[in-house]
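Need a sequence for this fold. Nothing fancy.
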């Protein structure tokens, strides 16, 4: 049976907004726990669900694993930490060499706009798991590096090709 056949779509699908969908999915561990696996060489990301107007992913993070600085290709979204803790650096509001940092503990919902640029890392000592929802479904991510006090584009990653 696929995840789509077992998902409580009647309860989740009406949520056109990522925050509500992320919370609903995070509250259904029987859906995302079978997708949880850890790889010592890279973060693991597994598509959990595709629904009209949005998609959901489960991401796993061993201590020290994280993303590059990136956007979401014009998709807005939300994520909930369901195990462990993550640290987020947000770019675009201040100098890129001094981003605001926030700790995201279990149960913490983090929403973001279509223009959000951030880096997420497991800076803790325990593995972490998070459930992410993107609307519309994420097609590209631009990655960046900090050059002086600004961001410089490194490249564009494409869904289905680069991840």
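Here you go.
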């Amino acid at each position: 049976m696929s995840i789509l056949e077992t998902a409580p779509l009647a309860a989740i699908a009406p949520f056109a907004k990522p925050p509500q969908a992320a919370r609903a999915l995070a509250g259904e561990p029987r859906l995302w726990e079978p997708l949880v696996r850890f790889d010592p060489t890279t973060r693991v990301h597994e598509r959990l669900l595709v629904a009209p107007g949005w998609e959901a992913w489960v991401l796993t993070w061993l201590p020290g694993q994280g993303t590059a600085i990136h956007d979401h290709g014009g998709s807005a979204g939300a994520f909930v930490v369901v195990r462990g803790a993550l640290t987020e650096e947000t770019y675009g509001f201040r100098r890129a060499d001094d981003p605001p940092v926030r700790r995201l503990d279990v149960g913490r919902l983090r929403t973001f706009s279509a223009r959000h640029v951030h880096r997420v890392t497991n800076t803790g000592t325990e593995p972490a798991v998070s459930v992410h929802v993107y609307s519309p479904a994420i097609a590209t991510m631009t990655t960046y590096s900090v050059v002086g006090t600004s961001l410089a584009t490194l490249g564009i990653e494409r869904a289905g090709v680069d991840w």
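For context: The helical segments are 3-6, 9-12, 18-26, 29-32.
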